[in-house]
Amino acid sequence: MTTRLGSLNTTQIPTIWRDHCRNARISLASCGFQFQALQSTPELFDDVARFHERIYRDQHAWDPVEDLTHEQCLDLFMDDNELDPAMQFLAFQDGNLCAVASLRTTADADQLDLGWIGAVNVPPEHSRPLHQALFGLCIDAVDHRGSSMRIEIDRVDPNANAVVDGLPVHWDEELVTVGTTITATEDNAVSG
Q1: Which of 42, 99, 125, 182 could cross-link 119 (Cys pair, CB 3.0–4.6 Å)?
Q2: Cβ-contact 101, 138 below 8 angstroms
Q3: Percent of the chain scored above 70 by pLDDT?
Q4: How far is C-alpha 90 from the chain's CA centre?
Q5: Is 42 exposed, middle or buried (0-12, 13-18, 19+ CB in 10 A)?
Q6: 3-state SS assignment for residue 31
Q7: Side-chain half-sphere of 33: how many Cα atoms within 13 Å?
Q8: What is the mean pLDDT of the chain?
Q9: Rounded distance, CA 100 to CA 88, Å?
Q10: Angle ∠(9,45,177) on CA atoms, nearest 5
Q11: Which H helix or E strand runs over 84?
């Protein structure tokens, strides 16, 4: 599997792209989807940790990961030192959690990292708009903080890749994962 790593200056995002994100939220709301930040539903903290695990497991089906304990899910996906519940965006359909996007803090105080994004058990026609709507909420949060954005997206996620492909992302490198080995590549040349 290949993971793309890049950075995005949100001030360079075209207005039309932002409009597409807002329109996706409006369209999905008309189909019964609701969006909110985790901070408004702290009672879902444990459920969101498990939901992240499910997305992680789905995206790594090519090399299945071992079952994670509840504590491992919390450590990996909900680390208090990295995640702010105000920057974890949730989507619900008929009251059920169906998609999530989470921004993480980084060592660089001026940068946030899109660490996790994905949807589970949604009709195919809603999956890409959900990614776009959630990604738009992340962009709004980055703008509000006056930060830049770091993006890490697995190539196996066609919806997330389709959303970011229209953006002025500076792709720094790709990580190639073979089994449990990760090899960094730059400019499409394998190193190491």
Answers
A1: 99
A2: yes
A3: 91
A4: 11
A5: exposed
A6: coil
A7: 26
A8: 85
A9: 7
A10: 55
A11: strand 83-93
Give residue 44's pLDDT: 87
Using DSSP bridges, classify how beta strands 33-37 and 181-186 pair: parallel, antiparallel or unpaired: unpaired
The CA R_g of the chain, rounded to the nearest whole Å, is 16
Which domains does the chain carry?
2-190 (3.40.630.30)
Using one digit for the tens of pLDDT, what is the confidence trace for 121-138?
899 999 999 999 999 999
3-state secondary structure at position 75:
helix
Which tens digits make up the pLDDT trace of 21-35?
999 999 999 999 999
Distance, in Å, from the CA atom of 114 to the CA atom of 129, rounded to the nearest integer, reads 17
Angle at 89 between CA 103 and CA 83, to 5 degrees: 35
Predicted confidence at residue 178, as pLDDT, reads 62
> What's the pLDDT band for 82 if we cut at 50, 70, 90?
confident
> 124-145 and 15-30 are packed helices; what angle lies between their axes, rounded to 10 degrees?
130
* Residues 6+ positions from 176 with CB-CB distance below 8 Å: 1, 2, 182, 183, 184, 185, 190
Burial of 25 (0-12, 13-18, 19+ CB in 10 A): buried
Rounded Cα–Cα distance for residues 60 and 128 (Å): 19
